[in-house]
Write a structure and sequence with these properties.
Blueprint: H1 2-16, E1 34-39, E2 47-54, E3 58-66, E4 73-81, E5 85-96, H2 98-118, H3 128-149, E6 151-157
Antiparallel strand pairs: 1-2, 1-5, 2-3, 3-4, 5-6
């Protein structure tokens, strides 16, 4: 019974650490909306900014950057050709990180539990099993509580405008 508990717990914690991107696309965002985009060669590297305009030819955005002295930030404009965009996403909400926190807390608790169980016990010292179980439970609970407090943005893919299809010239039949 005890040997089946650990894999089930780990599977449950891993399932709670789901993705932070929804799969339902949202309409084309409006000007001023926070965005993040990835260019075609490296679709995993996102750049965050604020949308200025978006059409079939280009994405115009502003990025918040600190001045060289690091005292104040400045919005700097930038552009990317729309056909070269691999992904465009907009935030649709925020979500807690209880699953991730619990998983990290479980790992820390497991390490501390193993260290506690490997020590020689004296009179009144907890048993190896209770020492390990106590640290695992405390680590998991503490990590989950910390994860509930720390929020992350949830992003959804935005629909990119497409170029209008070029008209095909009618082909005249051969005579």
């Amino acid at each position: 019974m005890r040997s089946a508990f650990l894999p089930v717990l780990l599977l449950g914690l891993a399932a709670a650490c789901g993705p932070r991107v929804t799969t339902t696309p949202v309409p084309v965002p409006s000007a001023g909306t926070p965005i993040r985009y990835a260019a075609a060669p490296d679709s995993t590297r996102f750049t965050k900014g604020r949308l200025v305009s978006l059409d079939a030819q280009q994405l115009v955005f502003e990025r918040y950057q600190m001045d060289p002295a690091g005292r104040r930030g400045v919005w700097t404009p930038g552009t990317v050709a729309t056909p070269s965009l691999a992904k465009l996403q907009v935030p649709v909400g925020r979500r807690g990180n209880a699953g991730r926190g619990a998983l990290i807390g479980f790992a820390v608790g497991l390490g501390l539990g193993i260290a506690c169980a490997s020590e020689e016990g004296g009179i009144g010292a907890p048993s190896d099993e209770s020492c390990a179980a106590g640290y695992i439970v405390m680590g998991t609970a503490t990590g989950a509580l910390i994860g509930l407090v720390i929020k992350s943005d949830v992003w959804a893919p935005a629909i990119l405008p497409s170029r209008p299809a070029e008209r095909e010239r009618p082909v005249s039949p051969l005579r």
